[in-house]
Model the fold of this input.
Amino acid sequence: GILKLTGRGISLSSMVVAFLLFAAAAQAGPLDEGYAMERSGNLEGAAKFFCGYSQSNLSDKKWAPESLIKCARLLDSLTDGFTERAEKKCYWSGGGDPACMQREAAALNSQYGPGSFEYVHAIVYIPYTGVHYKVLMSKFSSSKYAQEADFYLLLRELVGHPDNILPKVKAYLARHPKGEWHRKGLLLWARVNEDVWYVHRKWSWVLFNYQISPEELLIRSEPYRQEALRTYKILMKDQKTFEGQAAAREYAILNDNRDDSAVYSIVNDSSPGTLAAWGIEAPQPQRPAEGASIPQSQIPQISNPKGSAAPSATPQDGEGYRQAPSVPKRWD
Done:
C-alpha cells in the first residue's frame, strides 16, 4: 500500500500539476483583477480598472459591456464621496471656490473617462453623468445590460412638466414590455404619478397664481394618486420581487393620503435616488464614522422636498415663491 515515487510517477505528477495550473489560468477572466479590488473594498481602484478596461477594449464584445456596467455602477455609488472630498478641499477651508470644484470634476474625468462627472453649482454637487451607460446603449444595444442602461439614463431625464415626463416613462415601458426592467418601469411610473399628485396638491396654488380653489386642486391631483395606487397594486401581485415589496410599502402610505417624503421627479430639486432605491445591487462605500460631518449634498431636504411643509404665503409674496426650488421651472 505504499506509493513509490518512481521517475515515471514524478513525471506524471508534474504533468497533472501543470495541467491544473493551465486550467486555472484558462478560467481566469480579464476582469478578475477589478472584481478582486471590489471584494477587498477598493472601490475606486475597481472603478478605475473597469472604466479603463472598457475605454481600452471597446471592441471586445464579450467583456466590454460587463466592464462598462461595472464602471457605471461603481461611479454612481462613489459620487457622494467624491463630492464630499471636493467640498472639503474647495469650501470647508473658507471662502468657497466654484473654480476649484470644476477642477475636481475635471480631475475625476481624467481618471474615469471624459464626461464622467460634471459640477452643478446650483446644488454644489458633482454627479455622475451616466456616460458609460450611454456608450453601452450605443455600442452594445443587444447586450443583457442594455435594459439597465436604458433605465438609468431615463432616471436622469425626469425633471420637467408631467406632460413631457410621463410619455418618456410610457415609451420606456413599451421598449421593455416584460421582466424585471418592465417592473422597475412600472415602479417608476407609479412614483412619478405620486410626485405629480404631490406637486399639484402642494404647489398648484402657486403655479396658478392663487386663482384656484382647494376643490379644484383635489380634482387636478386625485387622478394621479389613483393611477399610482392602481400601478402599485399591479406590482403587489408578486411580493417576492423588490418592486412588489416596495409597492406594498408605498401603497399603504399613499392609500392613507400621505406621502413618503421622497420626490423622484418633476421638480428641480428632486432626485431619482441611488441604484439601491430601484433594487439594483451596487457596492457601497463604507459609511462615515459616527460623528463625521455629512456633506451638503447628502442632507435629506435637498432631494426630499416632500419632507418640508409648503411655505405659507400671500398673493403679495407670490413672485418670490414662484422661484422656489421645488417649483419646476418649466411650469413657471
